[in-house]
Amino acid sequence: MKKALPIFLALVIVVALLVGCGPPAVPDPPATDPGTEESVDPSAEPGTDPAPEPSKEPEPAEGLNAAEITVQVEEGWLKYYEAAVKRVTDANPDVTVNLKTIGSFDHLDILDKTDATNPDVADVFALPADRLTGLAGKDMLGAIDAKAIANRLGGWTDFDAGLGGLFKVGDEYLAFPYNIETLVAFANIKNAEAEGVDLSKPAELADAKDPAHLLLPVFDTWFGVALTNSADIALLKEDGDAFVTDLTAAWADLAPEKQAAIDVLYKYWKLNRDANTTLFDASAGWGYIDEQFTTGGKGVLRIGGPWEIGSMLEKTNNGADLEIFPIGQITVAGKPMKHWQGGWGLAINPRIEEDADQVALAEAVIAELVNPEYFVELFRATGKILENVPAETYQASSLDDIEKKLVVAVIDSFKVSPGRPLFQEFGPVWDTWKNAVLSWNNVAPADAEAAYGEIKAAFDAMMADLR
Questions:
Q1: Strand 214-215 versus strand 301-304 pairing type
Q2: Nearest partner of 52 among 426, 437, 393, 452, judged by Cα
Q3: Has residue 371 got a pLDDT over 60?
Q4: Total domains present in the chain
Q5: % of the chain surpassing 90 pLDDT
Q6: DSSP annotation string for 14-67
Q7: pLDDT at residue 58 above 90?
């Protein structure tokens, strides 16, 4: 980086997205009526699915000078990468692209523990959004001409409004959008029918009669932000050169919609406490959620990432009882839940920045890996969803019904979500929120204001440490 600032049908998807852009290691409309989908021959040749705008599909870059680079690839992605690389090398016979097969996180760990000059680190590699800031701060990411790539590929109306802007540090783009991720709502329609829950309209958390109907691990910050974001509660945000949070304000000074969200959270906790469930138990909560959501239980709706589709299929009779909605299918005090815009990017090693031919080759490979002409092949090989391919194009493709529902729900949820905070100072928030909410189990606050007092005390302490 040039001194930048600091499943059965989806088994492949599950492997590729094992942890997706989920919680960092340190403390990313209702489903389409099949009758309206365009029929596409699933045996069609690669690249023959309907292409997104512009109608002229981008061709591999031509006229590249002789250069050689190494590209990191996961085992399950290999065939897709080989095909993309071949298109580049066929159009440019003087270039050489070597593929290095290694898991993305294993590769990033090598980079993080050594430096960009390490020969075991590739010249082009994938990274989740939450790793970008840390690597950028260590000058381990090279600048790329992301706008030029985006203009050639097409499909964006505002590149910086999504992942493009998220991957920009200072004046430089340090990764190119590879995949969008955010949380969606999974529903067990068989359980909903048995429990008398109407899935034709959004489910309000405050109206839950049985705590199992809405299975939300809101004590876990990664999932809890779906609730706080519904009321635009800032857990931590940048304010010039400083950081601020809404959760150090006095209860009386909280905006009404923020008070309402905390009140719903408190009532949801009390509903579970009165029913003696284990949902608000950091060690037992997940088992309770999985048990209740499985067909035959009382669980109707839960939130999760697209990388969890394999597990959802297993719990719903191989998907026969599964429906997938945008995350806003669940509301909090009348406001739709929303998560964060997260995802993956493709980055280059800063050691090649001074070689214009290597950079040009790296950018050509990146562009071909995310060539929207091959959006179906990319999804089936890696589970990755392109930001610049509209939901309608995915719906008209040869993907199966479950895959289409998942993709559309992710896209619709992504559109309404704020960008994920990537600054390193956000780290303490994970445990601060979690410990504060779980403290209610011991404190047993009498009302929402008292419950908020525990949250405020925790965030007061966190902010004192940040200053």
A1: parallel
A2: 393
A3: yes
A4: 2
A5: 85
A6: HHHTSSTT-S-S-----PPPGGGSPP--TTPPTT-SPPPSSSSPPPPP--PPSE
A7: no
Asked if residues 299 and 191 have their Cβ atoms less than 8 Å apart, the reply is yes
- Does residue 330 sit in the same domain as residue 196? yes
| Amino acid, single-letter form, for residue 404 | K
The one-character DSSP state at 419 is: B
The token duo for 98 is 């070597």
What's the pLDDT tens digit per position in 2-11? 433 333 444 3
The number of residues making up the chain comes to: 467
3-state SS, residue 302 = strand
Q: Is 402 helix (H, G, I), strand (E, B) or coil?
A: helix
For CA atoms 278, 280, 282, 288, give the dihedral sign.
Answer: positive
Owning domain of residue 89: 11-182+342-415
Residues 154 and 206 in one domain: no
Measured between alpha carbons, how far is residue 88 from residues 49, 57, 323, 378 in Å?
A: 20, 15, 39, 16
Do 387 and 314 reside in the same domain of the chain? no
Per-residue burial over 413-442, b = 16 or more CB atoms within 10 Å of its CB, e = otherwise: bbebbeebbbeeebebbbebbbebbbbbee
Place of tokens 């994920």: 420
Mean of the per-residue pLDDT values of the chain: 89
